[in-house]
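Today's session is about reading a structure prediction critically. Students often jump straight to the picture, but the first step is always the sequence itself: look for stretches that repeat, for charged clusters, for runs of hydrophobic residues. Only then move on to the predicted structure, which in these notes is written as discrete structure tokens rather than atom positions. Here is the chain we will use throughout the hour.
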Amino acid sequence: MKPRHKRIALIVSGLAALAVAVALVLNAFQSNLVFFFSPSQVVAKEAPLDKTFRIGGMVEEGSLKRLPDGLSVEFKITDTAHSIPVTYTGILPDLFKEGKGAVVQGKLGPDGLFRATEVLAKHDENYMPPDAAHAIEQAQKAQRTLQGVN
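Below is the predicted structure for this chain, in token form.
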């Protein structure tokens, strides 16, 4: 084999190895990517069924119910315009309360029940995740617009 052919083969094999590495990194990134939706977006069917995503908003007052097994809870996440029922089995964060901000991660079932695998509560009186704050603000604007039209 001529030196020229060896160089071309080396370059082609290097590019192939680079393409495989890029494909593996993108695949890993895609499998770990979690999107955020507001309850209004979930009601509008913008959220995927049977895929993991996050919903953020406020825990609706009077919706928190502890089940007899001691670990399972049911509650609703709201953006003041729409509410999504959530079920979670596990230990809730200490700051998780009704009327406070929360972000839940899990999957939406075909029955409309969100099965959470992780619950995050706001950790500071002044803090709310930016996506959740924006979603609540947008829902409140839409609600005011609808009330102004009526």
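Discussion point for the tutorial: Strands lie at 35-37, 53-59, 65-66, 72-78, 83-89, 101-108, 114-121.
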